[in-house]
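Researcher: Here's a chain I'd like modeled. Treat it as a single chain, no partners, no ligands.
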Amino acid sequence: MTIKKTVLVFGATGQQGGAVARALRAGGWLVRALVRDPAGEKAKALASAGIDLYPGDFSDEASIVAAMSGVHGVFSVQPSSGQGPVHGISDEQELRYGKAIADLSLAHGVRHLVYTSVGAAGKGVTGLGHFDTKTEIEEHIRSLDIRSTIVRPAAFMEMLMLPGMGLDQGTYAFFMRPDQAMQCIAVDDIGKIVATIFSDPDRFGGQTIEIAGDAMTGNGLQDLFSRAAGRTITYHRFPDSLLEQNRLLGRLAELVDDGRCAGAADIPALREEFGDLLSLERWLSGPGRPLFDAALKASGHDVALR
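Model: Modeled as a single isolated chain. Structure tokens:
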């Protein structure tokens, strides 16, 4: 199908934006990407996939306006203020940028704004800026006279493969208790869902959609990772001593316990609405396999075990 409408994708050199840009191109959309460095390797890969590059960044309103001119839709995602000083931004910046993109979309006649938030948003104050800023951005978007859709992804499957969880030592540590379920989603499925949303604005406009592709307990991760590794992987929750020492990890564990970070998506309904979504097992045997193999070899990273 050839759609020949244009969507401006923010964060296209990152995980979510990149998945959305690829899915839109596969569906026949014209895609623009605002990129800080058009000569960078990730930007070049976008260009080779037929995506138009517009130089600029969130702090340069003129560059955003130039990229937004004449587009049908905007996919809005900002660097999370929870990523630390190297890769992240401040809570105030995330809030300002998220609101500004919504305001500019309204001012420049964008027909459909899709904002990606987080599963913990909209469920009360969490005390974590990178969640609470997204709640405030959501509220601002809803206050505007613009067709919008908000998606709230569960934890990324890709996040499960970060170094430091102990796979190289035959263990795995994460936030849920052994018998406690937590939802997750493959980043490529976020792209698939968002592309479907853009294809039917009348159906999805005005909605806030919790999205996930699977749910897994700690014991389930132990079984799955053991089969994938061909040897025993023992699961345990992050140690209490670490959760007490590291306030961020401790608070995240509390939010998993009270459900706000455990995921609230209706996965069967999502599969009916958006088609087949990857289970963690299928993801691990496909696109996630290289990440899993790398994590098995990621020696020297033991933050989860301290």
